[in-house]
Queue: 4 jobs
Job 1
Amino acid sequence: MGAAKRVSQTAVGDMFTTAAAHPNIALIKYWGKADAILNVPAVSSVSITLDALATETHVRFDGMLPADSLCLNGNTLAPTSNQARRITACLDALRALAGTGLRARVETHNDFPTAAGLASSASGFAALVVAASAALKLDLSPTTASKIARAASASAARSLFGGFAELPAGAAGEDVAAVGLASAEHWPLEVAVAICAEGPKAVGSTQGMIDSAATSPFYPAWVETAAADAAAARTAISERDFPTLASLSESSCLKMHAVMQTTRPALLYWNAATMAALQRIRHMQQDGIEVFFTMDAGPQVKAVCAPGAGGEVAAALASVPGVSRVLTSGLGGPARVIVSPWDGRCD
Ligand code: PMV
């Protein structure tokens, strides 16, 4: 990581910044850690960043604060909560680079359901790293920012980038960062997300991955086949080859869910609406519509569509029994500082 930079303990007047980041959806999935402490993935993943959903995070470093103070969607987080600890650990990495011990007030807001398989930790930690590093006047390279985000949440490393991104697998002790593969303009895919249940997921990804590695008989095959999937996806993206990307993505998703379902205790994220939405996507494919599905650690079905096909797919998914609503999105840009008159909605 970059050289430490000193921050004056007294120059606190303007040490605040707001940043925005978008969630990303993996087409080639990440599930499993090579190093649980450093949070290094055991498999390479390839993702698309969405433009319609966003996290906005405001960070203010303040010499008067005795401890970090954190507010998520209007609710103050208990300092002992898992989320608060992860946020403070991420801020600690940035404070170490800046050479400061200043504590921070962090206020963050998602305009989409939190912790429901919509990658809120990805956009959340990407926005946190961009806002906090800017507030500390750290001029981080995308690689360093991505490494710090990865340590907090591996999928967050990908949300630093817009369009298409890849987070490579690493070995234990290896500090990997995501890389941008192509911009949103390269191939403006569209996404329709069928919300099949609202509310937080039952088992978080960190515990789930540990359990999968320890108990699923399919886990070794999953890890062995991931590098070839990522390499083939890179080529399909560069050639805008929709059928190949569709086949690779659905296969990666179903392999990951096979690992999840054969984990003990089993990770069953699907519900009846999930299955109905997948069937509807199969029927659309049979009708010649360019669409494929992917899913994460939750019941939501993400339909990835060729440019121009998103509206028709979203309308079809909205009529599936049990689907409460459908979010639509194009591909978005990277995490960035924004000029925002923060409205203090957490106060
Ligand atoms: O980075 P985490 O801990 O939120 O894990 C994300 C795991 C999946 O969403 C299931 C797959 C992925 O690659 O995003």
Job 2
Amino acid sequence: MLLATASFVTNADEPQYALDRAAMVAQVEEYARFTGDHTGDQTFDKRVLKSMASVQRHEFVPEAQKHFAYQNRPLPIGFGQTISQPYIVALMTNLIEPDRDDVVLEVGTGSGYQAAILSPLVKSVYSIEIIKPLAKQAAARLQRLGFENVTTRLGDGYYGWAEHAPFDAIVVTAAASHVPPSLVRQLRRGGRMVIPVGGRFLTQQLLLVEKSETGEVKTRQIIPVRFVPLTGTH
Ligand code: SAM
């Protein structure tokens, strides 16, 4: 006799996912309190938490990972890449201080989850992914789930997306060896960028880069993080 061993999600799983998601958000809030001395914020903006509580993270992970979708940790999404830890997604979103009228650039679409979290908080999100199958999957997923203000493309995000610049905020979700000058140029005056900077596969520092109204650029270290590297030919 054949036993059905495949794990698949049905509508019957939704109430459990909702409970798991609420527990995940509670843990994100707890981490925010723990790390508040370093990040400068003991609590995250209510709008950011609301978005974390509504986006279905289980839709953004491969079938085999769905049961871990609401654990506060990164998960593999294929091609050696990961969907970031929920706390880190919330922290990066909080650090850019998203506003309804903002135009945001994300470098490293991956699963599309970070873009989905940003979507209800800002006017539009432009997101670039360098790995073709991931870019394709994320574009289809974001469209299917109705994140209409997110536009994606395949490419090297090191150079930004000049046609849509300047950006009110930039979120880089892969670790760079330095802050890409093109991204600094494409950041609007008064804008904010979050980016992990440091060695490949080592611990990096999450940096907050702020451009003042006079164009002066200031950088602050937030916390140590661990991201997959920013690849490309730069
Ligand atoms: N934001 C993603 C999410 O919510 O699932 C997680 C991103 S994962 C940690 C980093 C992503 O950056 C990977 O998908 C990787 O392929 C992509 N990436 C790496 N270098 C890149 C580059 N130069 N331009 C665009 N994407 C890049």
Job 3
Amino acid sequence: MATATLDKKVSVPRPKIRRTECFIDGKWVAAQSGKTFSTVCPATEEKIADVAEGDAADIDLAVKAARKAFERGPWKTMSARQRGKLMYRLADLLEENLDELAALESLDNGKPVADARAADVPLTIQCLRYYAGFADKIHGSTIPIDGNFFCFTKKHPVGVVGQIIPWNFPMLMAAWKWGPALAAGCTVVMKPAEQTPLTCLRMAELAQEAGIPDGVLNVVPGFGPTAGGAIVAHRDVDKVAFTGEHLTAQIIMRNAAETLKRLTFELGGKSPNVIFDDADLDAAVKGAHFGLYFNQGQCCCAGSRVFVHESIHDEFVSRVASMNQSRVVGNPLDLSTEQGPQVDQAQFDKIMGLIESGIKSGAECVTGGKRVGDRGYFIEPTLFANVDDNMEIAQREIFGPVMSVLKFRDMDELIERANNTIFGLAAAVWTRDIGKAHKFAAEVKAGTVWVNCYDVFDAAAPFGGFKMSGQGRELGEDGLRPYLETKTVTIAMD
Ligand code: NAI
Ligand code: MG
């Protein structure tokens, strides 16, 4: 593992912090309580800014603003095409400010700025454009029912939606939620993750500049149980969309029972990535490495159980090990950095605990396993071989730069083992045999299956989980449905 120097030549400038308050009804306001919390730079552990700490009182104001904007005012009467136009304008403004947004994301989250420039911000823009195009293509159907009736359906926006997002892809998660909500004509109360509120607030500022009317998008930073909990419990929120941990989703589902809100969940995973002995090994090694270590391993779809055919196992392990040894870990604002710090102390501690669990359970720690430096939440790219299916590291979501390699012999055994998890978000297979690829894709219980590739995302392709990895889908046309209610109108013709 190489450590990036804090080379000034290749570091991007530290971005200016523009917005730290709640954004409610088109205004920037302090939390009603006057409280703030600090958002921290994970690379240095230094405070970046004090951010308004919203709670139930602020959520209530935001919901009232969102309700007013939904029931009255320009958003309700605006044509669908005009809604799409405003969304395109927001996407254009994000593009104009791409470098600033990427730097801000990197500063607040710790991800390499090169990744934010190449992935987070462009995918955010793509998502908003994709759903902007949908705004004027949402319609019902006419239905031939028995008797002399004219029966048709209409699609209505579901109403005021509460959106609670995590810290691993802060901007992108905001776009996955705003895109379908705005296209459908809903209004939004969003709570960004407490670790990474800054880019969402900046996006709200740009949304206003784009002309999205007051009250349509409201952003209330704050903590999960307080601000998040208030969204979930609020009587006037029609739907909650959540991305995060399955244990949090269970709490949300219980707390939403009282008001029977519509719920969609995009949760975690323990995704199997399978490499057969007939695969293009160069591509498989690179793909598996990327599929796990990208974004410091903080991906819901991380390929964290890598099943490798026994005949190529040792070679695979040694190639991944050598990639880990040359990986550039360091200052995320340095353009040459490949791996930054984990997002916070809690994630750092969880990952280090799981690494210890792997070692204690007898897995072979081939590379890494330790902290990097003594400042910031950096962890060495870690590789475990000889992992058994039932070890804690093969069952729990680690959400860090820790790969577990498991050996397999044949397809039947493999599918059962691949499905031996409470999760079902993603899966991948590497093989030159089209039959094997199809069989695996058919049998694996996962919402997304990649064949000879990993982490291929597109706003047009639905994404979401089987089993405890979620409910409903985001992206694509499927991602729009949870934001719409179907109204059936039947008219007697005689
Ligand atoms: P989390 O699920 O607690 O946080 C996600 C969001 O939910 C944040 O905005 C948080 O403030 C909010 N939240 C927390 N408790 C809430 C509650 N009671 N009511 C309403 N909202 C609430 O995840 P956390 O603690 O940040 O990470 C823990 C683990 O979750 C990670 O180690 C990882 O395994 C998993 N995770 C999975 C993600 C994914 O993309 N599927 C994203 C983030 C975390
Ligand atoms: Mg939490």
Job 4
Amino acid sequence: MNPKHLKIGISCHASTGGSGIVATELGLALASRGHEVHFVANNIPFRLRDNIKNVFCHIVEPINYPVLNHPPYHLAMASRIAEVVEEHSIQIWHAHYAIPYASIALLAKDMLPSELKFCLITTLHGTDITIVGADPSLYRVTKYAMENSCAITAVSEWLKQETEREFQLSKSIYTIYNFVDPSRFKLKNKVHIPFLEKNKKIVMHISNFRAVKRVTDVIRVFKKISDKMDAQLIMVGEGPEKVSSVGVARQLGILNKVKYIGNYQNIEELLLHADLIIQPSEHESFGLVALEAMAAGVPVIATKSGGIQELIIDGETGFLCEVGDIETMADRAIQILFDKKLQKEIGEKSIDRVKKYFSVEKILPQYEELYINTLTKNR
Ligand code: GMT
């Protein structure tokens, strides 16, 4: 084994969403350190840039035959992983989001002869445990996938504890926090973004608009903000709860102040224009959006629920409110938006905290060490 040139496979969600973004950024960072990285996914992952040295992407194309109700994507992916491992002598397979990716990788491993059996690392991201894995229909397979991984990581201490409580595993879980490359957020010039209105406070929410994100709370908080000042709300992302948030905005008579822009790839360009981010989730196992906002020096209002409390220090690098407490969230938002000095202070402390604990320089070596230790143990 050459620890400076590992051959690593990654499977993850290709669509927008934290786990796919983290997996992609991890792959890119590993490749820039000289490792060879092979993605296997149903599409090119959302943030994967073209023509990057040491990065390869293999797309899964399942058969679509009328007898089958659904194209057997998971089985096709297991076959593809086995092929990629064989062709490229992959040593580590890193599955992001336990279900289906860890169980698919286990099937691939099972298909391979003993000399090609790779080490499976599974990273838990949050809803794979709290919602999907905890569902009775998937509990057993989730537990099996974790028990049979060579190592498991969780993106926060909270998620690690939740998983231990829910699954009583016989093996340890390592906490490795999510990360960003702080230099990405130090843009010299603001890129012009046509839909942003001039001379208005810009409030943003970024998510996949799932129920857990409580997007209608964003609208209700914003209504209270817009009663006090000229402001525009930018809703970034797509998902099933978009419709209800539009409904609430219409009911409250503020739809003309809310702009839905769908997914946006270069989030750093957008964040440079934001005065405040509102993420009122039911829980966040980590809160990658908050991390990216903090890296850009933008204050975040989030909830006292889940691993995001390990990222945001309440009152210093953002504000944490009770889930559903619209009043307090609005008060905090108005306080920040009226007080430039406070906004700047929170922004500066956030940038420092990100550099100190959540930068690629801090986190990447933790993954490399885990890979090397796991390979050594499983030789
Ligand atoms: O937020 C989501 O529902 C998407 C989900 C994902 O897996 O794509 O996000 C989870 O993973 C992110 C990356 O590790 C975390 O930053 C998010 O906090 C986590 N979401 C939840 O726990 C709700």
